[in-house]
Amino acid sequence: MSDRISVAKTYKLYIGGAFPRSESGRSYPVVDAKGAFLANAAQGSRKDARDAVAAARKAFPGWSGATAYNRGQVLYRVAEVLEGRREQFITEVAASEGVAVKKAQSLVDAAIDRWVWYAGWTDKVATVLGGANPVAGPYFSFSLPEPTGVVAVLAPQQSSLLGLISVVAPVIATGNTAVVVSSQDRPLPAVTLSEVLATSDLPGGVVNVLTGRTAEIAPWLASHADVNALDLTGAPESTRADLERSAAGTVKRVLRARPSEDFTREPDLARLRAFLETKTVWHPMGV
Amino acid sequence: MWEYAPAPESRDIANLKPNYRMFIDGQFVEGAGEPLKTVNPGTEEVLAEVSTAAPADVDKAVKAARRAYDRVWGRMPGSERAKYIFRIARLIQERGRELAVLESLDNGKPIKESRDVDVPTAAAHFFYHAGWADKLGYAGYGPDPKPLGVAGQVIPWNFPLMMAAWKIAPALACGNTVVLKPAETTPLTALVLAEIIQQADLPPGVVNILAGAGDVGAAVTSHPDVDKVAFTGSTEVGKIIQRQLAGTGRKLTLELGGKAANIVFDDAPLDQAVEGIVNGIFFNQGHVCCAGSRLLVQESVADELLEKLHARVSTLRVGDPLDKNTDVGAINSREQLTKIQQLVESGDAEGAERWTSACPLPDKGFYFAPTVFSNVSQAMRIAREEIFGPVLSVLTFRTPDEAVAKANNTPYGLSAGIWTEKGSRILWAAQKMRAGVVWANTFNRFDPTAPFGGYQESGFGREGGRTGLEAYLDV
Q1: Which of A61, B50, B132, B399 could form a disulfide with B20 if both were Cys (CB 3.0 to 4.6 A apart)?
Q2: Which residue of B has its CA nearest to A148?
Q3: Looking at this predicted complex, what is its ipTM?
């Protein structure tokens, strides 16, 4: 077999179901753990962040209004397509994180399994977290969890796929839509995940992925009035307090998860609960 | 309109004392702050002098709460905590009449509301949460969820005792200790609750109750040794607290303002809806964060509904809060009365049509006649801002989709009301509301088993129910 020249991929943003370059025209080089050039990634800007929020807001009524069964099937479909791309993710995770192929395999497998785990929660979370309220009066009262809205997710900086999936899947499983800022230095698995999402029946805008400088993009998301919640997992330590202060401007829900979170551990419900509201409904009983 | 002979509750029942002191580490103590005089808003007379906290007193209270948490309360078996909390519930019930009269004196709310809503609901919250103390492992937060430590809590003046109960009961049940600061204008029932806590023989320092103005509240919420902050009050102050706590890792829950839509569809039972609308906006003089302050009426029934509403509101009796016939009591303070007057003037200036009940008002005291604005548009201040008074803004809509869009057109999201005979429409509209509590064919119902709290800028976290425990657990 002759050596052939491979077709290199252009890594772009993922906004509203499309793959635009950054409107700023900027890109930055992504290197592997040893410093060798891998690709140029788009360097997302404030305007890209605002476009992503607009896309997420537009997608919210449809995605939050979809049946839980439907969301579960779409998310399971994502896992199917992830499985089909397994080899590509192993290569990218190994290169991005500088781990051996065997370790990369276990990280990718865990990531796919994590996605399946969250896909199964879509139609169970209301049963587990909601219920009837035995109020002292002639009323029927029940409480249900509902999605918070548009969630800005600062993805973990280290764990480029397993960490990313561990923070994105719980946000959208419950019907939120997301604007995700990928790992700054390890963004390639996030762009490939975007390609998976784009080909898995997930409506455009439910997940939007920005690559670039986290510290540059995050403040615009934290202060954006149409963002309802903020996940600080991948926020640089020096920016966390400022981001929280900005988020207070519109009383955003802030998940102050630490960057040191170990994503190989089995998750619990905390990340699902973090971006859920509780709605209590009352109606009188009588003839 | 029927004339009723006055039926006043005796103010002697309140056992009013000339001086009230703060409660720190199991003792009633003088604070180093400037004492405040709390006023009966129904008569403008001074009720009592209350000692207030200086920063050093806040520190003392937090230290006492920390000691009590480390040495006693945090390690006490839940089954033992439960019995203390049950005692508090029973003592509130036993002293219910006294508390109701005192609440109406200090707050200005009608005695029938303090007697039938505030005090019973306060007792119910302690009773409900007492039972959780030894069952937290079944609450869905793992097998052995841990408390957070010291909770700093600041509450408003609209439901003084009830808010104290909503804050203290879950905190204690989950194993936390408490530093609570009631509102400047309504400190009395919280300080009587302190007596009850003493009678219940709670270990010193488990509950500490301070008095004072916003500066004392700020000292509580920003104290570095407080592990959890809970605040109920305005969105403006809530944002300040959220900023203060940024980067500290301290847990925060906020229950803030609202501008609830109360939607009346064309098939609603109008007489029943009118009762609900009146309850929604005139209950507690409209000093309710979840008040149904924006009435959205389907255009085809708007004239008929407005006529019925005016007729009904005309019969509301405004006056002496201690009179059992009173429907609408006194506005809590001169400051609040001024705020209501200013917003009402903005309604006039922006071209809304004002109707005010011709009811007589007492000569002394802070009163505001029930007021209904019609021809209100969404851009007007009276449609956007929380008035926190007996003022209703009426808007109309043509289609259910328009009703939903208008209802959700606010940064708030605390509550909503729906009036229709059609079951499927109720469930549809309830699903569409971006609000934490939806009352269908009823309004302003509260129960310790039913989680209460807001979406968006109405705050985060819930009070009540299994969900409410999360605010006081390290989960």
Answers
A1: B50
A2: B455
A3: 0.97
pLDDT at residue A1 above 80? no
Q: How far, in Å, CA of A175 to CA of A229, rounded? A: 13
User: What pLDDT, in 10s, does the model give residues A231-286?
Assistant: 999 999 999 999 999 999 999 999 999 888 999 999 999 999 999 999 999 999 99
Q: Which pLDDT band, with edges at 50, 70 and 90, does A217 fall under? A: very high
Query: Which residues in chain B are contacts of A148 at CB distance < 8 A?
Result: 455
Interface of B with A in 264-283 (CB under 8 A): none
Q: What is the pLDDT of residues B170-222, one digit of tens each?
A: 999 999 999 999 999 999 999 999 999 999 999 999 999 999 999 999 999 99
- In this structure, CATH architecture of domain B11-256+454-472: 3-Layer(aba) Sandwich (3.40)
Looking at beta carbons, which residues of chain A come within 8 Å of B460? 251, 253
Interface test with A, best of B234, B290, B442 (most A CBs within 10 A): B442
**Domain ranges in chain A?**
27-284
Q: What is the pLDDT of residues B433-473, one digit of tens each?
A: 999 999 999 999 999 999 999 999 999 999 999 999 999 99
Interchain CB contact of A103 with B (< 8 Å): no
Nearest CA in chain A to B453: A278
Q: How far is CA A8 from CA A38, A96, A144, A205, A232, in A?
A: 10, 16, 47, 26, 33
User: B409 — contact with chain A (CB < 8 Å)?
Assistant: no
Of the CA atoms within 13 Å of residue B253, those in its CB half-sphere come to 28
Told to judge if B290 belongs to the known catalytic residues of this protein, a careful annotator would answer no
* CB within 8 Å of B271: residues ≥ 6 apart: B308
Q: Retrieve residue A16's tokens.
A: 């509203």
* pLDDT of amino acid B1: 62
Q: Helix %, strand %, coil % for chain B, to 5?
A: 45, 20, 40
Question: Choosing from B255, B386, B457, B463, which is the catalytic residue?
Answer: B255
Q: CB–CB of A279 and B436 under 8 A? A: yes
Inform me whether the pLDDT recorded for A140 exceeds 60. Answer: yes
Top residue of A128, A148, A281 to mutate, by most chain B CBs within 10 Å, is A281
CA distance B274 to chain A (A): 16
Instruction: Tell me the C-alpha distance between A260 and A203, whole Å.
Output: 32
Q: Identify the pLDDT of residue A260.
A: 86
The pLDDT score that the predictor gives to residue A3 is 87
Considering B174, B289, B290, B359, which one is annotated as catalytic? B289
- Scanning every residue of chain A, which has its alpha carbon at the shortest distance from the alpha carbon of B435? A279
Active site residue B255: yes
Calpha distance B373→A273 (Å, rounded): 40
Using an 8 Å CB-CB cutoff, list chain A residues near B426. 283
Distance, C-alpha B240 to centroid of its chain: 20
B117: which chain A residues are within 8 Å (Cβ-Cβ)?
A: none
- Over 80: is that where the pLDDT of B2 sits? no
CATH fold of A27-284 reads Aldehyde Dehydrogenase; Chain A, domain 1 (3.40.605)
Model confidence pLDDT, tens digit, residues B264-315: 999 999 999 999 999 999 999 999 999 999 999 999 999 999 999 999 999 9
B452 interaction partners in chain A (CB closer than 8 Å): 280
- Which residues make up the CATH 3.40.605.10 domain(s) of chain B? 11-256+454-472
- CATH superfamily for domain B261-440: Aldehyde Dehydrogenase; Chain A, domain 2 (3.40.309.10)
Domain with CATH 3.40.309.10 in chain B: 261-440
With a CB cutoff of 8 Å and minimum separation 6, the contacts of B192 are B95, B98, B99, B102
- Tell me the one-letter amino acid at A7: V
Backbone phi, then psi, for A263, in 5-degree steps?
A: -80, -5
For residue A287, the model assigns a pLDDT of 84
CB contact under 8 A, B437 and A241: no
The mean per-residue pLDDT over the stretch B226-249 comes to 97
